[in-house]
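Data availability (excerpt). All sequences and predicted token strings are deposited with the supplementary files. A representative entry, LacI family DNA-binding transcriptional regulator, is shown inline so that the format can be inspected without opening the archive.
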Amino acid sequence: MATIQDVAKRAGLSRTTVSRVINEHPYVTEEKKRLVTRAMQELNYVPNSSARRLRRQQTETIAVYVPRITNPFFSHLVEVMGKEAAKKGYQLILCQTRYKKEHERSFLELLKTKQVDGLILTSIENDWSKLEPYLSFGPIVVCNEYSDSAQVPSVYLNQIEGSYLGTKHLIDQGYTKIGYCTGNHKSSRVSKDRKIGFLKALSDAGIPMKEEWFFYNAYSVQDGFAAFKELKKLDDPPQAVFTGSDEVAAGIAKAAFDAGWRVPEDLAIIGFDNQPLAELMDLTTIEQPIDTIARQAMKLMVEAIQAKKPLKRKEVILPFQLIKRSST
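Structure token line:
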């Protein structure tokens, strides 16, 4: 196996000069770069990337936190982030928090111990006060989820507007008994704001809401099955359901079909995200521009890593779009 000394001998240069070329040091002539590159090719010499990163005090690795990778929204988000990171010479590692505060805190040690150059949070499980001290170890960018306390770059959509848009669509279609199915409604800012938008749309239209029409802790298709099971038991069930994800909406729709209910005649359903599943099942949904969210978040992260300056709050707020299909 060739060594750096072999490359130096073949190129007719000193080992120091070869090292400077490999580490992209300035003030090396183009001729010397050409000689070293040719020698490396002839000897099939590959520099030790770990050693190079160590000298630069960079890992060229970015951690992305997601609550649940099986959710197509997050898997799509990570896929696009990975492509964008590769274009800039970075790789990703995926950290799945499963909506658990302790998992999120333990993964933060990756930044503290310099195993990654930065973190992208797609959800926030802890109070920001628990996360803020880690900014002294490297940059953090937030996307999808957001916090008024986070003085860092953020890419998100106004969830109040998103849920208002979807709920108003149901109202415009003539529905007055509307249920609400959501996930982590207590700690997630996204879930809290969606509920605010939902209730505001009802209030603006003068439509009452029953407590029994709220269905919580729903994240997956299976949770959609369970939500419909509870809905079906009600003496006065809702005519329509606003859900926080296409997965949940699909689960409710499938359970309704299996029970002999007609969608939307017996139960109208609206999802969130516009995942491929929503198109497959012809579900009306609120589209979030996942590709744009991912690209913007990675752009902000790479800029923060390369700037090596204290982060400042910067907001990139993107628009929603209502996708109308047969489920409403």
